[in-house]
Queue: 2 jobs
Job 1
Amino acid sequence: MNVKNSLRSRAILPVVVGCFGVMDVNVRKQLDVRLLVLCLSALILGGCSSQQRVPGVYPSYDTVTTVQKPIQDKYAYLEKVTSARRPMATAVLLNEGRMAWQGGDINGALQKLSRALRISPQDGLVYYYLATVRHVEGDNGEAASLARRGLYFTRQPVLREHLEQLLDSLN
Amino acid sequence: MTKKTSSLKSKRSSQGQKRRRPWWRPSSRLLGTLALGGAIIFIVWLGHLNDVVTKTFNGKKWAIPAKVYAQPVELYEGMSLDPDQLHEQLHRQGYQPVERPDSPGLFSRNGNTFEIYVRGFQFPDGTRNAVKLRATFSGNHLQRLTTTDGKNIPVIRLDPQLMGGIYPASFEDRTLARLPDVPETLLEALVTVEDRDFYEHWGISPKGIARAMAVNIKAGAIVQGGSTLTQQLVKNFYLSNQRTFARKIEEAFMSLLLEWHHTKDEILETYLNEVYLGQQGRRSVNGFALASEFYFARPLSELNLARQALLVAMVKGPSWYNPRRYPERAKARRDLVLDMMADQGTISQVDADKAKGYPLGVVSTERLHANAFPAYIDLVKRQLRQDYDNADLTSEGLRIFTHMNPIVQQQAQASVSRLTKQLDGGKDTGLEAAMVVTSARTGEVQAVVGGRDAGFAGFNRALDANRPIGSLVKPAVYLTALLQPERYTLATPLSDESLTLTESNGKDWSPQNYDKKSHGEVPLYMALAKSYNQATARLGIDVGLSSVIETLKDMGMVRNVAKYPSLLLGSIDFSPIEVAAMYQTLASGGYRVPLRAIDAVLDAYGQPLTQYSLSVEEAFPASSVELVNHAMQTTMSEGTGKAAYQKIPLSIKVAGKTGTTDELRDSWFAGFSADTLAVTWLGRDDNTATRYTGSSGALRIWSDFMSQRPLQSLEPPLSSDIAFYDIDRTTGMLGGTGCRNEITLPFIKGSEPLQYAPCVVRSQVVSRPQVQDRQDRQDRSVLIDDAVELIKTFKAVWDWMK
């Protein structure tokens, strides 16, 4: 089930369940106009409310975030689109790790990313960055394993695409 | 003529005198020869001394043992951490509680708010300067982290706790200090007490010698030394402790030579690093910097006047004035040092009196600050020796950063110690235990406990107790089966009936269940959860011993095992760390993640030498491992591990497996949450019975430890090719309306049962009732919550409309 479908079903199903719930209790055999009006208006309202996020009930792995403006740097963009539910500490360490490897400090990058992983061991982007650093180091076997591990943890389509591209380039 | 005669007479006379020269009067030529010879010998000897002095002093002066650090405690908003644990950890690291922390190494606590002046430190990824922060907790969560002037801090590390070192055979330990890093008052105290004329003399002090001689003659024995600091250094650095005249002469000349070649500052700095200041077992504590860590658990630069004076006081006799053993004696000597400083005018009498009012301030237990974690250090050494020579480890001053989490290690030690004592009836009858704790996702080894007395550096059971693992092997048997989804699923019925097999030695082997009963047909997941031996043996034979051994190897087994049927029930020996390595593959969802104790190694100058980063390797399809893990969760909810939930909250999903060996000799438990894997062994070194099964013994230690951790619950399977179905427990077929004994089980898509159980009402059968995949399951829980809220709203509105 893709994300769109998921949102749609989340909007409609509660209303339907709600209507039937009411019918079960009170008017299973006497469906009158008042109930119809109520259910229809609730459907409309339910559809609107489906766009809201409910904090605390989403999984800890990445979720989609709408990006208003395209960001030039692909890594900064990835950090942005995968940022939902990521602790600030992880975000900062990811950013610092990337800066370190882009500045040629591989050891520093691995240290920062290891710290990020300790805080967020299921963050697909940390694995993507670790895989990229290993790729830069020339350890393609390890890079591929880390990329696959990243794929295991992430459902975010943009990140998955990047991980798959990295895997393709390693093969 | 007369002159000639007289001259001859005189010559004769002189010749006659010469002939008559007494035997004891040497000739001037002989004297000259002897003097020349003596001078040559003296010059050669002096040259030799000069050679000794310059060569040793100019080269590498000491073998500096490697220092081993724990993982630094990381602080960030939202993290789970009990503020009391932070308080304890600060204490362990020598942070001093004060009202207003105004220098590094101090902290204050007001309820749930801490102000910590964090020390600067050189980490493997760079140096972090000292910083003053404020941390506010809400319950067991760090709610807000800022600098004391209100700027947000996303994440920060404390300086890491020093765990110990890797020492040379001499067990001489020291930390080097540079002169500029030593407090001025400490230098003044040292010079005042030990050698007032230090900056005036040339290595020896006639004034000092005369003073000492007077005292010694008066006392009729040697009670005071007249040695200068230079002489003391020469004695400690080059010579023996013998009090002979020859040695004193040698010492005096070497002192003069040392002063000739080197500046006063160089001599003083070497003295500060050389001086012996204590003993811990075989390990000698040398130098003021190490002594500061050893007695006060803080760097030299953070010592107040009273502590500086105590260290100087101990120079005279570290054993006699040992502040832990003889606090009153040490305090009297410290106060004397302070008075001497005041007399000499290096401090005011007011400051001296104020300092005399302070307690000694030594940390209560030395164990915490020097090799308190011998089992972990043992693991570190073994891993390091794959890459480094022992000589380098013991002499090059390497800095080794490990993954030991000091809070986790303390908790693991406490659980092992307390529960083992409890299980041993409050006595010590030889019941022992070991524990290994790792990060479930990354393989970082967070804690190693080698025995019930964790501070004892004896037999390291966590690494070296090779014992049969019993039923801990079973997940490997079931995983081997579940790797064939076309043949086995969690719902597949297995026969738990008696069987007899022939071992390679020709003997018959008839496994029995623990309860001595057979249970007929049981679903596969329940056979694992209940740890049925007969069902497991049958399954193992069916999938093949070779395949099970292959699975064990893919899980991380490194030793060779013989192919015999009883290995299916765990008659193979492993140590707790080996079990942890294999279960790590299960906890990591099928990725083999080697266990890592070491993070990084730096040289003595802070340059990185080696980095040990995360390494992963796909060993099994994630979906198959997720099925095994699901069954191991059932072990915890319905099977042999359910006692764990007496301590762990029911909301936290954990997976695990018990292990018990013949005659209850070994009690094992291995299990994990989403973030923590722990393996516990309980047994006796002489291999006699313990009275405990895996459930009644090791599990209790494991649960006690895990209940102290802020655990993350295991999540539903993440693999996209897993789907859930409602299954009738009785038949293992698809359930549905009409069935009263159902369970929802995960299946690799396409492997789910095709037939409905007889209990399903036929009119209700429309399509196979797939429950949901991962996202659907989570979406559904959201939907149910939404629906409940809506129903409530509808009811209210409906009531109103009526």
Note: Chain A has two domains: 3-49, 74-170.
Job 2
Amino acid sequence: MSFTAIAVDIILNSLVLGGVLLIVAIGLNIIYGLSRVMNLAHGSLYALGAYAGFTLVASGLNYFAALLVAPLLIAVVGLIIERVIIVPVRKRSIVYTLILTYGLMFFLDGLIKYFWGNEPRFIELPQFMRQTLPIAGTHYPVFRLVTLLTTAVAMIGLMLFLGKTKLGIILRAASSIPEMVSCMGINMTFVHAGAFALGCVLAGIAGVISGPLYTIDPIMGHEMLISSFVVIVIGGLGSLRGAVLAAFLIGLVQTLAEFFVTDLAMVIVYMMMALILAFMPRGLLGEGRFE
Amino acid sequence: MAEHEAEKILQIEDLHTYYGRSHIIQGLSMDVNRLEAVSILGRNGVGKTTTLRSILGLTPPRKGKIRINGEDTTRWPPHKVVRKGIGYVPAERHIFPGISVEENLKLAAKPSGEEEAWSMEKVYSHFPVLKTRNRQDGSTLSGGEQQMLAIGRALMGNPVIMLLDEPSQGLAPLLVYEVIQPILLFCLQSGLTLLLVEQNHRMALKVASRHYLMGIKGKVAQTATSDQLMADQDIIKQHLAV
């Protein structure tokens, strides 16, 4: 392979990885930014999204239809979770939700093992997605390009939602001054629930698009949870722009590291995190808000 | 009874509010009549802001009763209290960062069918400077402009009573007398009721007709009309002078 082919391959791979990381991390970040809940079960919701996608496609649904339906199912699960375990401890310290969502993570993982078993699953892709596309001397898998496209569509959709719709503006306002939002007659209970559901939709989307990228197994969410933590910590807790920057930075570093020193890839990613935090303790863009 | 009660838009009886363990307001009673402007005057830290926060349900009182339009709203959540027709202008102004002037106003809009109702255009006609900055991030406005936006935003909800927490704080006197005071007087004439918290008694005397002079622990030391306060400067010295 020529040098350009390798470069294109690495760039595309890092964009794909960065995109998936970004969608999971932004979901986590939205929930944290609005409700100050660090949802440790977020990775498991992402896994649940992948399994939902798998089951929907296996029962005959089109892959793209599953990409729309699965995230909504995860949102419903999210709304139930929010009502049952987050709302009762809303006013208490963050430790309560940390412990409760940590327990929830094991509960969801157990549920997944119970219904789908331990063996890895694969989402059946439509014929055209199993092809490769010649780009600059490399043959790039079409499903990876579809993943990239889905990420872009999801991000643009999210930006338009937060930027242009009244609901989106309420979410942004509530992420900075929740008290004033309630003083304008808006019920913060719905805002919190909406933010949680939105975060779950994003986890669900990421789950379905990751299906073809990685194998679907009951613990797929754990590594993703840790990686998305790294993203939001490097980007700055609660900052959406920071998350975008951090996700693609990690995508690039991890892909490069995997190419050159496969076994040390994650070590290098964590070293980068440590270095960034040593010099910028509040992350690249500081603890932020939605913009 | 109903007729007499309905005259009172806000009634507070024996209010006790705490921040954690500190007992900030110890037995406050006061009321505000419809179409009236009332002020709470007092030094820093006597519990003026806490009074407003108690009314709004932001810091719910532990004891006592708050009635709005005759209905007991004690310990209601803020969004429900506000829907009774309250516009709140906090001391910090609380302009949402990253959100444009126009969006700040839009968020608060609660359209009303009435002809005199507040709309974006009406707010802009009173504060033309906001119109010229309508796309700008609200939190990058100057202090005076932010105050106008905070007042405009409260008006967009077409309230029946406005709670204003030190609207003149940190503003140049010129701005206070030429912009803030006129809009408050206009609101009053157009049928709004005002409850004003102030340390700046000069503006409060011109806008409000009745004053609660608050001493420490949120205790009303004295009530007075503007005429009484103007006639007897000693009262002001005693309660407000540093």
Note: Chain A touches chain B at residues 166, 169-170, 172-173, 176-177, 179-188, 289-291 (CB under 8 Å).
